[in-house]
């Protein structure tokens, strides 16, 4: 592994900040079992609706989780198998769980692939740019 550059270190710090929040860790830990509806996340984590929505939005904007809408229910899941691996490894490492050593060795060996999206990115706002009518014809 090569030494970190300053730019890479800054990116890693920003990424670590996403995990340095108790509610976000609870959400990620819950999603390790698979996709969950917002109501299921609320009951499993004990996080109230306003805070849960805020933290889900932060994780979604960082492309760590993805939403999927089914009728009126929104389900969240980790965005890729790589995100599952990272969340498992990080939580296990912080807990001192020796069973995560193979995950860490896998990451260190560079066996991670490019991120693969697991869910649909429905539910987020999408904006269109509308051009004003051209004045060339006037």
UniProtKB/TrEMBL annotation:
| Keywords recorded for this protein, A-Z | DNA-binding, Transcription, Transcription regulation
Give the domain of life.
Bacteria
The GO terms this record gives for MF are: DNA binding; DNA-binding transcription factor activity
Q: Cite the HTH arsR-type domain residue spans from the record.
A: 4-98
Supply the Pfam families for this chain. Answer: HTH_5
Membrane-spanning ranges: none
Q: Which SUPFAM superfamilies match?
A: Winged helix' DNA-binding domain (SSF46785)
What InterPro entries would the database entry show?
ArsR-like_HTH (IPR011991), HTH_ArsR_DNA-bd_dom (IPR001845), Metal_resp_trans_reg (IPR051011), WH-like_DNA-bd_sf (IPR036388), WH_DNA-bd_sf (IPR036390)
Instruction: State the PANTHER family in the record.
Output: ARSENICAL RESISTANCE OPERON REPRESSOR ARSR-RELATED
Q: What is this protein called?
A: Transcriptional regulator ArsR
Q: Which organism is this protein's natural source? A: Acetobacter tropicalis NBRC 101654
